[in-house]
Amino acid sequence: MKKEIPLKLFCFELLFKDGKSYIGEPFRTRRKVLVESVKTTHDVARDTILIANQEEVSNEKRLEELFDEAVGKGLEGILAKKEDGVYKPGAREWNWIKYKKSYSSKINDTIDCLILGYDFGKGKRTDFGIGAFLVGIYDENKDCYLTVAKIGTGLTDKEWRELQIKSQKSRVRIKPKNYSVNKAMECDVWVAPAIVVEIKADEITKSPVHSAGLALRFPRLQRFREDKKPVDVTTIKEIFEMAKSQ
Question: Among the CATH numbers 3.40.50.720, 3.40.640.10, 2.40.50.140, 3.30.300.70, which is that of 111-244?
Fold first, then answer.
């Protein structure tokens, strides 16, 4: 497989070398030492270890061009760093930022989904009892719900608590018969059709693990839709139309 998919290691940061810590050094120094430390032929086809491309940018237009180039190659975006910024583990403080694809969404509309179930939380989310929740859309022809995303990020503490309270009220012992869920997306707890949520996503992609055959990329909760019933959620036909219009 290494001939079909040649793995490469792209080095983009150096924090420690030969007994010396570079965490407190400015990025320009860390980059200089990194370049001196990694020996390459500058041939991507031959080298296994390479240094990530870098360009100094002084205007917004060029930054946008680099971002578009990265997204055009199928990457998530670019990383922007201050030349004089130090490295602070666990904090950015604007010394570096991720300029990601999620900031340029291909989908203008939101998607109304039904919460089908959830997984137990770990770490901090143990307090909420929910670590991720599974959402689906409606198949009118088969009168069933198909999965499109399992969401574990993007909620505030208040939203996690609200979701936990709502889910407890609708919790059921076994998966409802009108839920079409692939084994890989099975939940720890199933929820009866009751909770409708509005989801914002950046893209709709093909998916072998979701029963809709499509998945929401970077899904995040916008709000709970108390005004909508389970049968009012986005349909499989509408999702495919949205995917085509991207």
Answer: 2.40.50.140
